[in-house]
Amino acid sequence: MSDHITEYQGSATMDKITSLAKRRGFVFQSSEIYGGQNGAWDYGPLGVELKNRIARNWWKEMTQLHDDIVGLDAAILMHPRTWEASGHVENFTDPLVDCRKCKTRFRADQIPPENLAAKKCPDCGGDLTDTRKFNLMFKTHIGAVEDEAGIIYLRPETAQGIYVNYKNIIQSNRMKIPFGIAQIGKAFRNEIVTKNFIFRTCEFEQMEMQFFVKPGTDVEWFNEWKKRRWAYYEKLGVRMDSLRWHRHGPDELAHYAKDAYDIEYLFPMGWKELEGVHNRSNYDLTRHTQYSGKDLQYIDQENNNERYIPFIIETSAGLTRTLLMLLCDAYDEEKVISEKNSGSAEGNASGDTPHGTGGSADDWRTVLRFHPAVAPVTVAVLPLMKKDGLAELAQDIRSGLKEDFATDYDQAGAIGRRYRRQDEAGTPFCVTVDYESKENGTVTLRFRDSMEQIRVHKDELAKRLYQEIKAYKRIK
Ligand code: ATP
């Protein structure tokens, strides 16, 4: 394990991230015109692209790159017995205390122990109630009558949808142990403390993979999955000294877990869980066997029909939390020296005379250094000027790239300012079309991170972009 930094090194703060996210259309408060809905957020045009790309990237990593993992998309609504079997009805609780004076509700494990012992509110000094268990599952009713028989839960994790389908998948897809099932989907938790933007919300998305193994091989597979999940973040270009492992102590271990590690990220508000890698033993399938009455043993046909209940290694990451991590990790502010468009004068597409970069010689830029695999826009096409056929040529070039890349087009304002807008959206490549392009078909390819500019023939662009994406290494 590498040495870790202890203080957040980036220039992001949660305030800057929240305001950039809103300004550029990554994330909006849910139902904002009504004052907002606590614990719920909406993903705008750039946000939904980023979220979809993170999901697709994880999906590719887990399914396409692993022959022994298949996908599933299970329903959010499940038979209520599921949650009795899983232990959620009994155990999925937070300890809560209320202040009788200021009415604030706290998680008992998140206030100073001395306040809890003295039953004094950390905010106003008022009296605290006794600690009560509060179940985090959202409960609602299904059917026309609101009675006990119609109680149904919004799933608090996606994992159970995988466990109840494990036999179906073995039968339909002839899977043999060891194998895994991957799923991405919504989960709901009635979280009491939902601060820190989208870090902890009541409605969120998970990317979970459950890997079924023979008992006795579980420790080996657990270590293997720890390695693979660590390598995944490395491949995504995350600052690796901002990640660390945290092993759950005996009093942190969930009721199902034999061993558990979290991958934590150093967010601006401190080290926080990003993903859990858990050895869930045979707890889940044993319980579902008991509660459903169905035999969920695996029959090993290659081994004299040996029967056993598999152990499960789980990798459970938050999709929306990963999005927040990537926003923080990618965020940078830096001073730049005036940036010119190579081979030609600075351009202002909306005016007639080419002029400045849109800032002074010593300019600051905000840049999101997303990996091109997840960046909401991969390439933006910018005509240096609107006139003289440059806009038409740029549109043509964009059309040629659309089928293969997420593109944007911008012709408004000075070229320097347009580069800044793309930097702030995290677009890794800009293509600038100028007078030389008309003459010899070459365009400027500008790299977000280094701001380096090279000339490439327009017919070579797609190939070059593929190469650059494949070879991408974060430089800062
Ligand atoms: P915490 O201790 O933060 O409440 P947890 O240990 O209960 O989380 P898990 O049940 O292991 O979390 O969930 C797996 C992953 O799902 C977490 O690592 C996190 O990325 C994500 N996640 C869990 N709860 C939330 C939430 N309320 N909002 C956003 N993401 C969440």
Question: Would you give an account of this structure?
Answer:
The protein is an alpha+beta fold and 476 residues long. The protein folds into 2 domains: 235 residues, Bira Bifunctional Protein, Domain 2 (BirA Bifunctional Protein, domain 2); 133 residues, Rossmann fold, CATH 3.40.50. The protein is 29% helix and 27% strand. The strands form 7 sheets. It has a 7-stranded mixed beta sheet with strand order 3-9-10-16-13-12-11, with helices on both faces. A hairpin with a 2-residue loop joins strand 12 and strand 13. Helix 2 packs across helix 10. It is globular, with a radius of gyration of 26 Å. About 4% of the residues have low confidence. The chain binds adenosine-5'-triphosphate.
Quick overview:
The chain has 14 helices and 23 strands. The chain has 476 residues and is an alpha+beta fold.
- What's the number of domains? 2
Can you name the CATH architecture of the largest domain? 2-Layer Sandwich
> Total strand count, please?
23
Mean pLDDT: 92
User: Helix amount, in percent?
Assistant: 25-40%
| The CATH C-level class name of the largest domain | Alpha Beta
What small molecules are bound in this structure?
Answer: adenosine-5'-triphosphate
Q: What characteristic shape results from the CA principal axes?
A: globular
Structural class: alpha+beta
Radius of gyration: 26 Å
- Please indicate the percent range of residues in DSSP E strands (runs of 2 or more): 25-35%
Biggest pleated sheet: 7 strands, mixed
